[in-house]
Design brief:
The protein is built from eleven helices and 13 strands. It is α/β, with parallel strands linked by helices and 352 residues long. The chain has one domain: TIM Barrel (Alpha-Beta Barrel), CATH 3.20.20. The chain starts with 7 loop residues before the first helix and ends with a helix.
């Protein structure tokens, strides 16, 4: 779960373009250490992905000329896959009501246009519907949705209708995959078998890959329905330790060993780090003093790629995130113009 706090003042303090990769760690003599990306050849079909975030304003969001310009840039650095995030809305975290289809800034036709843009660049699309509530502004999220037992069946009926609509749209648009849900920790724990039924309903209208995006904290290990899905999807905001690329990479061993024990392909439906001090230690929330640290973001990107691509069952990552126009919401997760973008280009553009 990402704590969705607005940090525009933080990102605004970071230069638009930062070249080179230099660690904050020092040698015993006090000289700063330099490092460089170490890309490896990635397997065919690897998902070099990005969550492509819609700006809710006509002419700035999905299917717009601005979105196409950003998509062309992403293709130029080697991004092969994008995840589109249509939204439904819930009035509270204890409500069984789900509303969708009323956003005039993001219609189905806009999503169709965005899929055509991606196809024209040879990019694959994951349809990845999200849910939003005003409660999220205070730092809560899907993990916190908690209903009375009698209300869960109604919630899942409403959610299934939402998921099936976008699975059908994904089939129409030739999408590669559908992510039917993400980070509904309590819903998953209290309703074993329910997500398998959502997947089954989506398979009736969509023949591509079906995944679920589990929260990195507990949900993916407690999830009972992985057999119904083509891969284990994880929103991978695992806390990392250390400061150098080598230390950060080594700290991936424990969660990767646990993921390997599931015996299924794994894809990170989300992963990302903010360009602020200490982001790798708590990737899911704002923390420390908000001091800009674009190189720390780059080191965390590099560490994830070094560690995870060494596992043969790892199918790829959809980074969080990039907007349909920049600077977008000035979110410090965005790697645009940062050393982290150089890491992506090295691994995805020049590393194949």
């Amino acid at each position: 779960m990402r704590r969705r706090r607005f940090l525009s003042s933080v990102l605004g303090a970071v230069p638009a373009t930062v070249l080179g990769c230099r660690t904050n760690a020092s040698t015993p003599e006090g000289a700063p250490q330099t490092w460089a990306p170490q890309p490896v050849r990635l397997p065919a079909g690897f998902h070099s992905g990005m969550n492509f975030a819609h700006l809710h304003r006509r002419g700035y969001g999905y299917g717009s000329d601005r979105a196409f310009a950003q998509l062309r840039h992403l293709a130029s650095i080697g991004i092969t896959d994008i995840a589109l995030n249509p939204f439904a809305y819930t009035r509270s975290l204890s409500s069984a009501e789900i509303e969708w289809g009323g956003d005039d800034s993001m219609t189905d036709d806009d999503i169709r246009a965005q899929c055509r843009q991606a196809a024209s660049l040879g990019m694959r699309v994951m349809m990845k519907p999200h849910l939003w509530s005003w409660a999220y502004v205070a730092g809560e999220g899907n993990t916190d949705i908690d209903l009375d037992a009698a209300d869960w069946p109604r919630w899942f009926r409403a959610y299934t209708a939402y998921a099936v609509h976008f699975a059908s749209l994904a089939a129409e648009c030739g999408c590669d995959s559908v992510c039917v849900g993400l980070e509904y920790t309590i819903a998953s724990r209290e309703n074993p078998g329910a997500w398998a039924r959502v997947a089954e309903a989506c398979r009736a209208v969509f023949s591509g890959r079906i995944v679920y995006a589990a929260n990195w904290y507990q949900e993916w290990e407690q999830f009972t329905d992985w057999a119904a899905f083509d891969a284990v999807g994880v929103d991978a905001y695992f806390p990392l330790t250390g400061s150098t690329v080598e230390e950060l990479s080594a700290s991936w061993k424990e969660p990767l060993d646990r993921l390997e024990a599931l015996g299924k392909p794994v894809i990170f439906t989300e992963a990302g780090f903010q360009a602020i001090n200490g982001a790798a230690a708590h990737p899911w929330e704002s923390h420390d003093d908000g001091t800009p640290d674009p190189d720390g973001q780059a080191r965390a990107y590099e560490a994830l790629l070094r560690a995870c691509t060494a596992r043969p069952w790892f199918e790829g990552v959809y980074w969080w995130k990039w907007f349909t126009d920049l600077p977008g919401e000035r979110d410090p997760f965005v790697p645009a113009g940062m050393p982290a973008e150089n890491v992506l280009h090295a691994w995805f553009g020049g590393g194949r």
